[in-house]
Every structure is written in C-alpha cells, then in structure tokens.
Amino acid sequence: MNRGWWFVAGAGAGVYAAARARRVAESLTPQGLRDRVAGLSLGAQLLAEEVRAGAAEKEAELRDRLGLVAPEPGPPALHPTHTTPLQIPEEGTT
Predict the structure, then answer these.
(1) How far apart, in whole angstroms, are the C-alpha atoms of residue 10 and residue 38?
(2) What span, in angstroms and rounded, lies between the C-alpha atoms of 41 and 52?
(3) CA 64 from centre of chain
(4) For 1-46, what is each residue's pLDDT tens digit?
(5) What is the pTM of this model?
(6) What is the DSSP string of 72-92?
(7) CA 61 – CA 57 distance, rounded (Å)
(8) How far apart are CA 9 and CA 2, in angstroms?
(9) Closest Cα to residue 56, out of 44, 41, 73?
C-alpha cells in the first residue's frame, strides 16, 4: 500500500512537471513570444480606452456640477474667436 501510494504520487508529479515544462517551452518560441506581446498590446489598448472613457465621464460630471458649457466636439480652434479685431484708424480722423 505504501509503495503504491508513492508510485502514484511520483507519476502525478512527473506528469505535472512535464506539462509545465512543455508550456514554458512553448511560451519561449517566437510564436509564443509574439502571442505574449500581442496580449500585452491589447491589454494596454483596453486600459487606455477605459482611462479615456473614465476621464470623459468625470469631465462631464464636473462640467455639470460647475455649470460650464461643454466644448464643441472636434479639434480646437487655432485662433480664439473672442478677440477683438484690430481697429485701424482711417486717415484724417486722428
């Protein structure tokens, strides 16, 4: 009984070690490394998307709380629209 139990335990440990070694060997192949990098890239994209969505949600919440007007969607204007144009005096009026 005692020898049989140790035999089964050793066989189970051997199978587990072989499976782990095969997984590590597969992850270190070029295909495995490519898959890991693709997974990291996708994770970074999802994280950035979540951060942008959270920031937009909080910005809208703060604008509502402070009573500010939301900016128009699209790229910002190159020149502010609230500046007054230069007034050039006409000749003879100075």
Answers:
(1) 37
(2) 17
(3) 26
(4) 689 999 999 999 999 999 999 999 999 999 999 999 999 999 999 9
(5) 0.52
(6) PSSSPPSS-SSSPPP-PPPTT
(7) 6
(8) 11
(9) 73
* Those residues with Cβ within 8 angstroms of residue 33's Cβ, 6 or more apart along the chain or in another chain: 27
- Is there a contact between 35 and 23 (Cβ–Cβ < 8 Å)? no
How far CA 63 is from CA of 6, 28, 67, 74, in Å, comes to: 69, 50, 6, 18
Going from the C-alpha of 65 to that of each of 52, 59, 68, 72, 73, the distances in angstroms are: 20, 10, 8, 18, 20
**Beta-strand runs (E) in the chain:** none
With CA atoms as reference, report the closest residue to 73 among 62, 60, 54, 58: 60
The residue whose two tokens read 């035999």 is: 7
Cβ(26)–Cβ(32) below 8 Å: yes
**Which stretch of DSSP H or E encloses residue 11?**
helix 2-27
